[in-house]
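Schema walkthrough. Field components (list of strings):
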Amino acid sequence: MVRDLSTSLCGISLKNPVVPASGTFGFGLELAGCFDLNCLGGISLKGTTLEPRFGNPTPRIAECEAGMLNAVGLQNPGVEALVREKVPALRRVFDGCIIANISGFAVEEYAACCRIADDCADIDIIELNISCPNVHGGGMAFGTDPEAAAEVTAAVRAVTSKPLFVKLSPNVSDIVAIARACEDAGADGLTLVNTFLGMRIDVRTRRPVLANGTGGLSGPAIFPVALRMVHQVSKACRIPVMGCGGVARAQDVIEMMMAGASAVQVGAENIRNPYACRQIVSGLPGLMEELGIERLSDIIGCV
Amino acid sequence: MKEVSYTVLENLPLAPRTFRMKLSGDTSAIRGSGEFVQIAVPGKFLRRPISVHDCDFETFTIVYKVVGEGTAALSAMLPGSQVGALTGLGNNFDIDACRARALLLGGGVGAAPLYLLTKELCAQGKEVTVVLGFNKAEEVMLREDFESLGAKVFIATLDGSAGTRGFVTDVLKLKNLCWDYFYACGPKPMLKAVCGAVKGPGELSMEERMGCGAGFCYGCSIMTVSGPRRVCADGPVFKREEIVW
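Field assembly_structure (string):
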């Protein structure tokens, strides 16, 4: 039997639910020589800001049990380069869903950035990043307060007609309150979760391993927490959810979808294994057969 | 880039906390000196980027220093064990940039990739002078290996227990060496000192803590005169004038 892996996000159909997460797959083309990107349902591009950014000093990467920390700090060439170079170049080789991840430091900046992204026909979804833990005075500051999250969501909603997903931070006491605030402010969907704020210390130098001091924790270590948040939010909201956090194999995709995710993002696993997404996609049909799943979309939110 | 499973042929100490590991398997993605491999270490989430020390059609060799738990686990691997690696990562030393006389400067385990570079330069009939710097005599390694390729080798040690006392740059002050192009690999302070002391064109192999090692996580970026560059994918080898210190 042919297994149906397709899913949809706000009317956009994806050939399968597997989407590399923002920041773990560059602007897509970096991996075009690695495997055929068209095996992916979509690609969430590296977080982009209005102006180009170098990001944080190095070291930007640390490691821990079952995961890693990053403090890249939104290195990107700016939204003009995104819409003029990065997205058109990716579109030439990729027929799936292109998701532009937009970040900023002020409401007006988010809106200005999204207005430029809105003009780019090859961008299918805008993913508003209000959850980057590695920049000061922006990013996560908007994602940890329902009112601030609603304000930036509404400002961006006003300047784009594209499907708008808001990527939430797990570093909050009540993620449902933030999710509802974004839904009420006009979000078409939610991506959750971004990384967990963490740190490592070099015991010999008595200094943080990361030059930034702290960084975002990702990898299999966070999967159960991310899964719980996806479950909570998808029960509380009517808009579709992209599940993200520690997904490393086909079974994790099934769990995320059973918890309520319509699509599933793969993050840190790409960093240790560039072929991870392709392997996860190819593992899905066999697992569906084993579990008696004919259409993957049938299991969304079944738990 | 190619993902390959290798068999460890040997994994022996070369100097205190420094090992040489020889691996057999498909080396077709390895193009030449300067590039690196990302080795999967049992029990560790991220791979370890390590430069290619030597390579032929069926085997390649790495020389690495134990600096943490990952490299410690690597040093415990026995011959016969399997190691996964991403190969063919990073750029290469530009061997054609040297006309006739090359000066190679290595600091500590930074000497490792200069071995394959020496092989390539000697094969082109170029004259190679290698200056290696270490902390003390017992850390000195690879001297005979370089000499057997036909290179002239000078040693510097910080405590003066072998060769010239001081840094590799102190050797340059004392010896009357000739070169038209230099290549350097070592810790950042050494590379900075080299750029300050060595005249003429040359290139440096830079080191940063890496995530993916393949250019898409932007974890190892450095600022250059032409903007941000990824050490893993745009480097690790950069022309001296590109680096912003």
